Amino acid sequence: MDSLTQVVLGAAVGEAVLGKKIGNKALLYGAIGGTIPDLDVFLGLFTDTITAIELHRGFSHSILFSVIMAPLLGWLVNKIERSRNLGWQPWAKLFFWSLITHPILDAFTTWGTQLFWPFNIKMAFNSIFVVDPLYTLPFLFCCITVLFCKRTSKLRRRFNRFGLIISTSYLFCTLILKSLAYKKIESELKNQGIEYTTISTRPSPLNTILWNANIDTKENYLITDYSFFDTQPLKFKKYPKHREKSEALIKYLNVQRLINISEGWYIIEQKEDQWYFNDLRFGLIPREDGSSFFTFSYYLKEKKGEIQATEVPKTKREAKFLMQRLWHRIKGN
């Protein structure tokens, strides 16, 4: 999830663990704990594109990381806050829960997380977009309200508990909505006589009403979207795989790593003598001129017998157009 949401979640967890004893300091240290796992993005400054992708949401988003870091951070903060004389254990408990809830929340997004690192088990429920106001804003309101309540106030604990309950409830509701969208798309494929092997669904930006879907067939990928307000049959746009055209590239180790990262949802295509690796998991971004481009795409270039991958820079996006298009599609086809 986005940084603000993780800060709010960490602060609320910190308050739940130690708020009654240390007041707003629990919010502060909880927010710090909730931010720490995402510091792995800075590793990308010191390595190549593919390794940076593999490292992100890896070790720092695991149970093991939380178990190791919690007592270390607990010991450090106990030294800093020695006047409170709490001992390191309560601080360690605060940091463990603020650290571990971060990757648990991330597991509901499309990126997913390696919660059980070093085991190669990636969790990605694909039920919430990385920025979702319906999850964050009520939670944020409750968290801000807590700041202005006395440390021992029952109202303070109630607001914090309410924020945690409403956000968690919404999170589990997204799983139900995902299931309903999946069943509808599955029904549409059957009605239109389309044979497929796998369906992957995910929410569109900022909401859980409009869902995007990738469908794997023998020769093509199909991409569609479904709003709970739709009244017309769904339209499936075809994207040929053309695996035979990229056989020579697929043999390279770095291309295999990208395929593994994309979980098999990829298209390798050539445009004007330049090869591109498109990760389909995050869908397409439309342009105002009617064209579109994949959210995550990588240049592939052979150098010294290896393939190097570089992320295609994001072009300028027409924010107003994208929001209007999103709102129009949410209202139904």
List the keywords.
about 325 residues, alpha+beta, four-stranded antiparallel β-sheet, about 20% strand, globular, 8 strands
Summary of the model, kept short:
The chain is an alpha+beta fold. It is 46% helix and 19% strand. The two termini are 29 Å apart.
Strand content: 15-25%
Average pLDDT figure: 94
Q: What structural category characterises the helix and strand content? A: alpha+beta
Poorly predicted parts: none
Description:
- By secondary structure, this protein is an alpha+beta fold.
- It has helices at about 5-20, 25-35, 50-55, 65-80, 90-105, 135-145, 155-190, 245-250, 255-260, 320-330; strands at about 200-205, 210-215, 220-225, 235-240, 265-270, 275-285, 290-305, 305-310.
- The chain starts with a helix and ends with a helix.
